[in-house]
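Here comes an entry:

___
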Amino acid sequence: MLIHEDRSFPSDPESRAVARALYQHIKSLPIVSPHGHTQASWFVRNEPFPNPATLFVQPDHYVYRMLYSQGISMEELEIGRPEVKEPRKVWRTFAKHYNLFRGTPTRMWLDYAFQELFGLEQRLSEKTADLYYDTISEKLATPEFLPRTLYERFNIEILTTTETPLDPLADHQAIRDSGWKARILPAFRPDSVVDPEFQGFAANIAKLGKQTGEDTASWTGYLNALRKTRARFRSLGCTSTDHGHPTARTADLSAAEAAALFGKVLTGKADPGEQELFRAQMLTEMAAMSVEDGLVMQLHPGSVRNHNRLIYERYGRDMGCDIPSPTNYVDGLRPLLSRYGNEPNFTLILFTLDESTYSRELAPLAGHYPCLRLGPPWWFQDSPEGMMRFREQATETAGFYNTVGFNDDTRAFLSIPARHDVARRIDCAFLARLVTEHRLDEDEAFEVAYDLTYTLVKKAYRL
C-alpha cells in the first residue's frame, strides 16, 4: 500500500488509540471547501480529464515548482501550454523525479489519490511510470471519473471557486440552469481592479465600468461598480470575498483624500508608496461593503508575487514563483478594525505565510475582536507540521472557536479529498494529545473534532 492507515497519528499507543477513535467519528463527514481555485467550467462541460499529465502536473504549482527547483525546465513539463502535446513524456519526467517529493505534503496528497482513486499500490517511479499512466488514463475515460461524478464520490457538499469581478459567471449560471444540485459557488476576488500593480489595472477598471454602467473614472462610480458586481456574485450564491495583498496594511482616508489618490493610481502617476496606500484603503472600503452586504472577507497577505522575473515575463502570473514575507497585522489592520472591528455583521478571516505571527499577533487579535477569525495554515504551511504548529500556537489564546476549520485552496481537483483527510488526521492527533495529557475530556474532543471538520467552516463562511 502507498499510504498507511495510521499516517499522521501519534506514535505512542495511548494517544494513537484516541486519535483513531476521533478520526472514525469525523472521517466520513461531507467536505466543505469554501476557498479554492478549481474551475466551474469542468462541471458545466462534464468531460473526461484529458490525461494524467494534464490532471496532476500542469495545474499544480506544488508539483512543477519542486521539479523546476531541480533544474527541470517549464518547457520540458509543457507548463503554460493550453494543451499538452506529449503527455506521456511529461509524465515520465515527473515519475523519474518523484523521489523529490519525499517528506512533503505533496507526496501525501498524490499517494492518496493514486491509491484511493486509481487503486495503485506500487510506488510511482521511472519503472512504474507507464503502468501509472495507462491505469490512470484508462480510468479517466470511464463515466466514474467525470467531474460531476467525482464531485459526488468525494462527498463534497460545497465547493467554492475564485473569480475576478470581470468574470461573467456564465459557468456558474449554467450549473444552476442544468438542474444539478451540487453547490458550486463563486468567491469575489477583486485584485485585478484594486491593485495598481496588477497588469492592465486601468483597462480592467474601464471594463468594470462598461459591465456595470458606472463611470469608473470617478471615485464614486468606481465604488458603485464594485457594489453592483458584489451583488451579481451574491445572486449566484457567493458568500465571501478574497483579497491577495502584499501586506496587511489598511487605511482610513477621507472621501476627498481617497478620491484624489484614486485619480493618481488610475492615471499611472502614483509612486509605490501611494500604490500601497491605495491597496490599504481598498481593504477598508471592502470591509465597509461587507458590513453592508454580509459577504465574509478573507485576507491572504504576505506573498511576494512573481518573485522570479524571468518566469513571470515568459509565463505570466501565478506560476509557483511566490515567496513568503514577514507581515505586520497589529499595526496594519488597526485602521480597519477601528472602523469595523466591532460590527456584528462583519467577519474577516485572516491567513498568514508568516508563522511568527500566530501567537504574537493573530491569536491575540482573533481572541479579542468579534469580527476576526483565523484561517487554517495556508500554502507553504499546508502540511502536517504546519497544521500542528498552528494548533499549538493559536489555540492557547484564540481557542478552537475563533478558527474556521479547513479549506484546501487548491487548483488540483483530485487533491481535495487528500488535503481534507490530512487536516482531519492532524486535528485528531492534536486533540488526542490533549486528552491523554488530561487537558481535555474525551467527550469534548469528539465535539471539537466534529466542529473543526464541519460546523465551524459553515458558520464562518455563512454556508
